[in-house]
Amino acid sequence: MHSIPATMTAWTKTRDEEGGFSLESHPVPSAGPGEVLVKSQSTSICGTDIHIWKWDDWSRKNVPLGTITGHETSGMVVGLGSDVDTHAVGDHIAVECHLACWSCPRCEEGNAHICENGSIFGVHGNGAFAPYFVVPAVNARHVPKGLDPGHASIQDPLGNAIHTLTGGPIEGATVAVHGLGPIGLFAVNAAKAMGASKVIAVDWDNTYRMNLAKELGADLVLGKDDDVVASILEATEGRGVDNSCEFSGSAAALANTIHSTRMGGYVNVLSVYGQSMPNVPMNEVVFRYLHLKGINGRKMWSTWDTMHDLLQRGLINVDKVLTHRLPVSEFEAGVQLAISGDCGKVVLDFDA
Ligand SMILES: NC(=O)c1ccc[n+]([C@@H]2O[C@H](COP(=O)([O-])OP(=O)(O)OC[C@H]3O[C@@H](n4cnc5c(N)ncnc54)[C@H](O)[C@@H]3O)[C@@H](O)[C@H]2O)c1
Ligand SMILES: [Zn+2]
Ligand SMILES: [Zn+2]
User: Fold this and answer.
1) Which CATH superfamily does the domain covering 7-153+317-349 fall into?
2) Which among 51, 124, 142, 291 is annotated as catalytic?
């Protein structure tokens, strides 16, 4: 039986400034009705954590000072709240960070990831840069047997990649991935694993990530020295790709996706843009009869089912994308590394 301490030390956003994290003492939370208490094993650093580190306008509005952040995490269940019969102590889980009410119209139609009353674990409330956390049992997803905890922790961005890809055709289709951050790299890997006939990977100037995309099986890798639109058209008999996925956060890349998707094709956008009104060629969307779709989070639970199937069959080369693992004590160095871009995914590990 695991003995649970009364207090714990956790990385906490305490100061109203860039950086502004400190290690603070908190009570170990206890699982309320329908919740599980989890001992953290690995928590990975997400772009959202970088926004909170930089303390931009969005973070100031959404993250209360004093919050323990961190939402991409895996761990072991060590306590059960009342009414929990889906989990047992000792289960290995990873967190779906979109907390839903399960009773609003969006939840009832199967779109709990855009719940009208939703909140995000580790953003709006305490998360997992802490040795223990509580989460609704339904958000604690059992992980495929024997999966490395670091690999289990990256299912949030891997799921983002798969959710975006599945907004259009994949098997037998031509796919372009714009922006080769961790999510774009997972998309390159997943598109190949799901049977895309050709995967074109596009970044701007991050040659480290462009090389990783090549190693993950991209058929063609493009960057700032290429005419991206002309190169994609040339690689697709002048038509453009069937399925364009946008992960760069760059308005220029979004325009490129529209110009290089075939007539009647699919443009799926996960990116969040620095400017909320990116300059996009809308008439091209109309005349080319494109399907333009915004993507948020992961479908609960079809994205998870697809992801677990791919992971179980060993088709996702997580080690290639997960380039750095640090102990959680090196949280600040991990964030700086993620900001530098000289990395794929950075994962923080807790003591066993
Ligand atoms: N909607 C959601 O639910 C959700 C969830 C997570 C992340 N996001 C967003 O998804 C995007 C991807 O996240 P990430 O952490 O993988 O990104 P990241 O910021 O680590 O990587 C972006 C990459 O795009 C490249 N890039 C810059 N300009 C480009 C251009 N013009 N063309 C092609 N590539 C270009 C950069 O060099 C970088 O490698 C971000 O915009 C993030 O905010 C959305
Ligand atoms: Zn995330
Ligand atoms: Zn809801």
Assistant:
1) Medium-chain alcohol dehydrogenases, catalytic domain (3.90.180.10)
2) 51
